[in-house]
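note to self: dont lose this again. the chain is below, predicted strucutre after it. 228 aa total, dont forget to put it in the shared folder this time
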Amino acid sequence: MKLPRFKELLEQTEAMTHTPPPGQMVGPTKAAVLKAVDTYKDKLRSMGINLHSNLGSGANGFVYDMSDGKVAKITKDRTEANATYRIKGKRLKNVYEIYEVFELGDLGIFLIIQEKLQPLNPIIEKYWTPAQTALGGFRVNPSEASRTFDKYWIALERHHSFPSMDSTEYLESKRAFLEVGNGLKELQKNEIKWHDWHIGNIMQKSSGAYSIIDLGVSQSPMVSIDKI
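---
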């Protein structure tokens, strides 16, 4: 059976009051991020950031390990810094916890200290990835979240023959789906419109709860970020 392809449901917001959509942000280069790390290396080390333990890098910056169950992301992404600042100190059940957000001087480079999460359950990788590809991504308007989740879940069930309705595969996939949906609602309550729901942006907390990560593709009211 051919899977249905749903329209992308993204709520439009005024650019004047929210961070601009992805692709419209102009800022420092990734090389500037490395330069900022070097400039602030003593301060960063004093905060417990291990600059010799680079856990990975992306288009906008780098992630470093910390010794207390946290990681430090140093990024040029103002959009992500803005969104994470809005949930700083809030313990949202299905969204990664943010402990601190700072701007490094006036460089337009940001330090985000966040919760260290666990790799995703292999069952979710197996059952979600093909469905996500067939659907063209999971895109949800928060105001229509419940109805859209139902559509996606139906598509996921059609795409796979689960062993049974009470199998581990079925129950775990459904739990993950509903918990990510709850995370989306938690972000909405904090005035964050998240537009990047896909398998690469879901991990698990130490409790086993599924968690949204990476708010780089989002929109939220602008805030003033503390500097160090």
